[in-house]
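Input (structure):
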């Protein structure tokens, strides 16, 4: 089922949007959907991306809640993780 994969990618995209230092565009590039997404959205073909958008909304909400809890519990660990994510995304991009 391709819509499940698209929704799962959307969740990761939503989580990436919440993380400081990592953009949704970078996450889309890492997931391998950036070029197709931009091309289709420029042609107003948005219906195939509904599962991606719904997954991104869910990832955004869940990621914000988790980020809030982890930031309160372990700010140094979270900062180290975010630095690693930024460095890894820079290397992949």
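Output (sequence):
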């Amino acid at each position: 089922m391709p819509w499940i994969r698209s929704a799962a990618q959307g969740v990761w995209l939503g989580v990436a949007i919440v993380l400081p230092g990592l953009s949704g565009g970078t996450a889309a590039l890492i997931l391998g959907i950036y070029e197709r997404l931009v091309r289709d959205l420029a042609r107003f073909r948005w219906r195939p991306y509904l599962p991606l958008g719904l997954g991104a909304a869910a990832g955004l909400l869940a990621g914000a809640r988790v980020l809030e809890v982890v930031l309160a519990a372990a700010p140094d660990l979270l900062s180290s993780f975010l630095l690693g994510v930024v460095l890894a995304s820079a290397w992949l991009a």
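Notes: The first helix runs from residue 2 to 18. The chain has five helices and no strands.
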